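Worked example 2:
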Amino acid sequence: MTKTKAPLTGMRPELAGILPEVPPLKAIRLPAVEERTLENGLRVLAAKRSGVPRLEARLVVPSARRRSAAEPAPSRVLAKTLLAGTSTRSSVEIAQELQRIGGSLDTGADSEEYLLYGSSLAGEVQSFLALLAEIVTDATHPDDEVELQKQVMAQEITLARSQPATLAREALFKRLYGDHPYGLGLPSPDEVMAVSAKELRKLQDKRLRPDGGVLVLVGDVAPKKALDLAEAALGAWAAGTGKPGLAAPTVPAPTATLIVDRPGAVQTNVRIGGPAVAHKHPDYPALALANLVFGGYFVSRLVDNIRERRGYTYSPGSGVQQNRQASLFFIQADVGTDVTGPAVVETRYELNRMLAGPIDEAELVSAKRYLSGTMSMAIQTQSGLAAQLANLATNDLPVEHLRDYPAAVEALSEGDVIAAARKYLDPRKLHTVMVGDAAAIKDAVAAFDDVEVEAAAG
């Protein structure tokens, strides 16, 4: 007779003998990271990761000064036109230089930071960093390129604003953060079109400054050499005035459920959220596990309830979003109009079940393996490691966090996770917004909540 192995501790009984055992995760082997802070305040981290002869780079700099927040429209247009030309190169010549060095470079911006990210051949690091320095210190934002990018961005925003998911996200953030930059959402197309090239050149000189910023370099290059090249290229980049970054927002207590009216909508976009904690907070590992068990991945309770068993929605979920000055626990589900009330009731039922316990061993082990495994996988590539190091640096965490965080997760008990749920997943502490047909859903929601209705922005 063939012996059957005992199932892995925590494996669901019905899966025993079908799925292979998952052994305990091996400890993460930390990369050797060299670090230097330049005189201008730019923090540079470099790590060697061989395998392919390339370098991955991430440059993150604050887009605001403490007493003067970044303007949403100009900041976003500025990021889009950083590669449009410098005093010595056109946009075509920048593209040609990137092609010559086997490189790429892209940009982005949000309410609190500018991001430049890209790569090059390992033998062209000096040229890549020289080009990066040229762009951040000498971008000229030519009039014709600015006009073109404004038109493209205005069309993208118009399209995004036509999507109920965008309206729902912005409504939740406005509810949480009000007039703080985190709550402002996308600029309007008119605000984008009003931006001038002259304004961008002034904004770059005022706001795109190295102090408070982080540059991460990962690839097939000696870390000390990478630091030296970064200092040679970016050491002359002048620091700004005033303290970089935003002030922390104040989040009000929840009030009535908000319905953003879209007459005739066949589905309701439900968004629920409230304050959470940053990665460096002692509660974060337990919160991350509570989020996973509740709704943070496909085998979570929320997915099992309102997708698998009831068929209310296709892709519900939850997560913890990190900003520099605030963190957010959120839930999202796009449900049929006719089941809006039941879907919210079941979602809150699952939240309350997290608060009450129990959490069985199978759920806890599964969530721990997923959380630690995804981190281990995320740092296996050059780009993944660069992204993780940039995330650590902007959250004021040491590289040892890559090793310590999985160990902290593994040590958590059922009681720890329930305690975190009671702090951060309590539905009485969470704001609820919905985008849908108010006439069709208001009465169902009013049966268990006070309700406010507002028209969707036109």
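The longest helix spans residues 143-161. Confidence is low (pLDDT under 50) at residues 1-11.
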